[in-house]
Amino acid sequence: MELYQIKTFVVVVEEGNMTRAAKRLHASQSTISLHIKSLEEEFDVRLFLRTPKGMQPTAEGKLLLEKARDILDSVEKFESEALSLKGELSGEARLGLQTSPVYLRTPQLIKLIKEEFPGLSVRLVQMPTWTIRSDIAARKLDGGFFYSNCAPEEVDGILLENTMLHVVGPASWKDRMADANWEDLSKLDWIWTPEECSFNVKLEETFSSRDLEVSKSMIADSEDTHNALVKSGNGITVMRADEAAEGVEKGEFFIWPGGHIEVGLYFGFPRNKADDPVVRALLDCVEKVWEKA
């Protein structure tokens, strides 16, 4: 058994697809297939079921997955510790961003990482909250920012702040929204968020607790799309207080004065990897940047 075979096994489980696994590992699909076949033959155990939906791990495969991840984690930690003996942490940190880099204080974070860990490069990846959480859990990312209404279970994380969200509509809808209550708002056209989104969960709770059904005229998963649709008069939505205030200054938005909701902003990292040198570096820098604010 070779280390590259173990890594192949883990990546195929995470991707659920030979083609995607091959792309991620920069290898041919035939090579990936050969590695899996070699493992199965060496231990006389079937690791995957080939289904129309892709490569699904067998019961035995699922049992071996965490052991395989532990092996890879140990090797990564060994490599990081060995490199740190030179007096400088090196390598690449994969960091997920789910919203505006400015809001997440990314420029300050990168500056601090360069100052304290000059040998560490950072790969920034922009993606939705729910993808960041799943990619951290799958260890495709070393860390990332995401929204959540409660402490996450599938990853470790720290709460950075409770983000305030305002109900925002087009500036031209001021007369319709100024004296509105939640029931009035429910009858307006809403630009809703996907069900995986923490904003969705919070909004559903807010309206269902009042026995109200919402007029969901459209669903969009991009903050930029929400902003553009509000500006063009297509409906109302929720957005961060800083985004809403900026739109008001430009004469594009009206903020409903009747209340707001909050969701937690977290920085997360893979479970049980707080002592990994790269994760520890990211975590230390994130904590310093957010403590200074």
Description:
With 293 residues, the protein is an alpha/beta fold. The chain has twelve helices and ten strands. The protein has helices spanning 3-15, 18-25, 29-43, 59-84, 106-116, 129-137, 174-177, 182-186, 198-208, 223-231, 241-249, 277-292; strands at residues 48-51, 54-57, 91-97, 120-126, 143-148, 156-170, 190-192, 216-219, 237-240, 253-269. The strands form three sheets. It has a six-stranded mixed beta sheet with strand order 4-3-5-10-6-9, sandwiched between helices. Helix 9 (198-208) links the parallel strand 7 (190-192) and strand 8 (216-219). Helix 1 crosses helix 2, helix 2 crosses helix 3 and helix 5 packs across helix 12. The chain is globular. The relative contact order is 0.14.
Strand content: 15-25%
Q: In which range does the helix fraction lie?
A: 40-55%
**Which structural class matches the secondary elements?**
alpha/beta
Q: Quaternary arrangement of the chains shown?
A: single chain
Ranges with pLDDT <50 over ≥5 residues?
A: none
